[in-house]
């Protein structure tokens, strides 16, 4: 139901019927190591944020290419969260309680961003939550999760009862808030920083970069978001910050992203990434519609089942 980090997995919506294979962000071992190593720092930072800073809608400014969006920043971030949820889970409802062992080399995949037990980001979520709510259903799994993340180990033998504990924790608004914060810190904030640096001002432009961060990762490898931005700047002879038309830049960026999905640097991802181009097509369709402000409601249709985004 979530996305790939190294391999494919069959995605299933809430009703259980299969839909498209859902590749997601690809992160290499060095990046996973960085996530694990930075978990303590991120946990401390999130713990110090009062009242949910970093949850959808609390990040920095977003304006349209025409000079300002009709929607508030909070509205835009919620719209983007719903879009990514459709691309990842087939529903605009953000899936905080989702947890499943997909036998895909990542152990348990869980939560709104497909946090994984073998990948470090799930450990960050659990440690951040435990820092704020020490007595919680998943706190006891921190030692096992730390060991698994450090070894990139997809085994679940030491996680008996973890899935039920995760679902129980997801009923807590604080736990959902922590998932929002970690998603923002690891994926949304880096995408926003690149958007600001390159002069991407539209809400749709930010959504395109955020979705790319979630699927491709924010590592500085050949298939990561920073590389795709640099390739687009080179191909277009500049960026919107230097006067290049933003819509044309975004269209070229999506073309480069599609090429990367069809021909990734790692052969391990080639089959599953080629099956994920529907999300690029859906974003291209929004460009064709001229909906740079992501004015709601609108539909996205990456997998043949249109979903309505309401914000």
UniProtKB/TrEMBL annotation:
Matches recorded under InterPro entries: Glyco_hydro_46, Glyco_hydro_46_N, Lysozyme-like_dom_sf
Pfam assignment, any one: Glyco_hydro_46
One record GO biological process: carbohydrate metabolic process
Superkingdom to which the source organism belongs: Bacteria
Biased composition (Low complexity): 13-23
GO MF entry, a single one: chitosanase activity
Gene3D superfamilies xref list: Chitosanase, subunit A, domain 1, Chitosanase, subunit A, domain 2
GO cellular component: extracellular region
Chain spans, region Disordered: 1-23
Keyword annotations: Membrane, Transmembrane, Transmembrane helix
The protein's name in its UniProt record: Chitosanase
Gene source species: Pseudonocardia halophobica
Phylogenetic placement of the source organism: Bacteria, Bacillati, Actinomycetota, Actinomycetes, Pseudonocardiales
């Amino acid at each position: 139901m979530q996305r790939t980090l190294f391999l494919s997995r069959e995605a299933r919506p809430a009703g259980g019927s299969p839909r498209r294979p859902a590749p997601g962000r690809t992160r290499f071992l060095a990046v996973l190591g960085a996530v694990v190593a930075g978990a303590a720092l991120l946990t401390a930072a999130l713990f110090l944020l009062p009242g949910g800073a970093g949850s959808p809608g609390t990040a920095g400014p977003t304006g349209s290419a025409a000079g300002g969006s009709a929607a508030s920043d909070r509205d835009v971030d919620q719209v983007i969260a719903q879009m990514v949820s459709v691309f990842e889970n087939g529903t605009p409802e953000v899936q905080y309680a989702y947890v499943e062992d997909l036998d895909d080399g990542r152990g348990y995949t869980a939560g709104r961003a497909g946090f994984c037990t073998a990948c470090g980001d799930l450990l960050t979520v659990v440690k951040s939550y435990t820092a704020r709510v020490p007595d919680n259903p998943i706190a006891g799994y921190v030692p096992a999760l730390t060991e698994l993340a450090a070894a990139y180990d997809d085994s679940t033998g030491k996680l008996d009862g973890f899935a039920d504990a995760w679902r129980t924790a997801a009923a807590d608004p604080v736990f959902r808030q922590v998932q929002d914060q970690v998603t923002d810190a690891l994926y949304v904030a880096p995408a926003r920083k690149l958007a600001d640096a390159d002069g991407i001002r539209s809400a749709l432009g930010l959504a395109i970069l955020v979705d790319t961060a979630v699927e491709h990762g924010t590592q500085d490898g050949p298939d990561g978001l920073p590389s795709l931005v640099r390739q687009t700047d080179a191909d277009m002879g500049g960026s919107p910050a230097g006067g290049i038309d933003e819509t044309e830049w975004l269209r070229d960026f999506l073309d480069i992203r599609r090429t990367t999905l069809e021909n990734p640097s790692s052969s391990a991802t080639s089959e599953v990434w080629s099956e994920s181009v529907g999300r690029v097509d859906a974003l291209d369709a929004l460009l064709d519609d001229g909906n740079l402000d992501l004015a709601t409601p609108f539909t996205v249709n990456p997998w043949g089942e249109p979903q309505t985004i309401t914000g």
